[in-house]
């Protein structure tokens, strides 16, 4: 999967590279996502964002969708920075890092855990699998009506 990751800090580069293990073509940039920097997503299938540092408003989501982006993964548990309604209208799928996956970790372990969960989300999207607890699409698996929400099983939105 071709991906651009926004707002990358130096301490995040190594964990993302290790977690990715050369599976996805990820471009790491330090710029935050905005209407102006959305152009970096041209030709990409997914973007990786982080909390309020990145502008994932309806305007930006529309620009990303126009560029061909299909997936938005946040490397955080929070999704309030993402206009999920706008993403749903443009059929963009959204994933976060489930809070349960970070339970009991030390501060030193967090960057690797966030990176690993983000890559798992990309892997599952690439394989057309349900993201389970990481799925924050506007149409949850259990609301789609076509399939039951079972982690690891394909679903339709």
TrEMBL record:
<dbReference type="GO" id="GO:0008720">
    <property type="term" value="F:D-lactate dehydrogenase (NAD+) activity"/>
</dbReference>
<dbReference type="InterPro" id="IPR006139">
    <property type="entry name" value="D-isomer_2_OHA_DH_cat_dom"/>
</dbReference>
<dbReference type="Pfam" id="PF00389">
    <property type="entry name" value="2-Hacid_dh"/>
</dbReference>
<dbReference type="InterPro" id="IPR058205">
    <property type="entry name" value="D-LDH-like"/>
</dbReference>
<feature type="domain" description="D-isomer specific 2-hydroxyacid dehydrogenase catalytic">
    <location>
        <begin position="12"/>
        <end position="101"/>
    </location>
</feature>
<dbReference type="GO" id="GO:0051287">
    <property type="term" value="F:NAD binding"/>
</dbReference>
<keyword id="KW-0520">NAD</keyword>
<protein>
    <submittedName>
        <fullName>D-lactate dehydrogenase</fullName>
    </submittedName>
</protein>
């Amino acid at each position: 999967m071709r991906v651009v990751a926004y707002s990358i800090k130096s301490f995040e580069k190594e964990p993302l590279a290790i977690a990715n293990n050369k599976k996805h073509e990820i471009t790491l940039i330090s710029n935050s996502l905005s209407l102006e920097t959305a152009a970096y997503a041209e030709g990409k299938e997914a973007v990786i964002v982080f909390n309020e540092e990145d502008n994932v408003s309806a305007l930006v989501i529309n620009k990303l969708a126009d560029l061909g982006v299909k997936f938005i993964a946040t490397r955080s548990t929070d999704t309030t920075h993402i206009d999920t309604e706008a993403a749903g209208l443009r059929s963009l799928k959204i994933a976060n890092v489930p809070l349960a996956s970070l339970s009991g970790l030390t501060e030193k372990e967090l960057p690797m855990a966030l990176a690993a969960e983000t890559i798992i989300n990309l892997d599952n999207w690439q394989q057309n699998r349900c993201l389970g607890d990481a799925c924050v699409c506007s149409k949850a698996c259990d609301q789609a009506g076509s399939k039951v929400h079972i982690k690891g099983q394909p679903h339709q939105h």
